[in-house]
Description:
The chain has helices at 21-24, 29-36, 113-123, 138-152, 160-177, 179-182, 186-207, 216-221; strands at residues 6-12, 49-55, 75-79, 90-92, 106-108, 131-135. By secondary structure, the chain is an alpha+beta fold. The strands form 2 sheets. The protein has a 4-stranded mixed sheet, with helices on one face. A two-stranded antiparallel sheet has the order 4-5.
Amino acid sequence: xxxxxxxxxxxxxxxxxxxxxxxxxxxxxxxxxxxxxxxxxxxxxxxxxxxxxxxxxxxxxxxxxxxxxxxxxxxxxxxxxxxxxxxxxxxxxxxxxxxxxxxxxxxxxxxxxxxxxxxxxxxxxxxxxxxxxxxxxxxxxxxxxxxxxxxxxxxxxxxxxxxxxxxxxxxxxxxxxxxxxxxxxxxxxxxxxxxxxxxxxxxxxxxxxxxxxxxxxxxxxxxxxxxxxxxx
Length: 232
């Protein structure tokens, strides 16, 4: 059930091709081979639209908070009324999505993004049939788009930094596609791109793995590295 305390919008989130290994690892055949094993089912389910809601008090998104390594508390994936979602870990949505007028509705448990990525894939349940995104800030919207990329592109998560890099690039392109709908400026997108590049670099350092053989800042600052991406 929708509530007049929430603003609801449809985001265009088309399936995107994977970034080619030759782009991320132009001079390292070993790394290119490793790259090919990161996902075992890219675009197993076609992505098209995502219902995004935010409280009416957040007509203008909060944009000052940096995109950091953890899902922010103002982010939640809420189950559609009547959706078959009992196979997913859940908690009462009102504890995680405040200001939406939610009462007894359920949301995906915040710790269960990885579980949902696996279970949606195993059961071949289309994510948009089950979930809508509650996000009241720009950082929450970015993380929600990142998680939405995970839900549609399955991998074993044996290479976390590489996995997250590709989902970050998809999320950033989806943000660009929807920047007018979301009320996001080019400067906002540029700042998010810089945050994501820094976050990506820190993940490779934490893993003790070499970062891709490209300039990460330039990679994120530029367009999605595949031509003919649809835009609103």
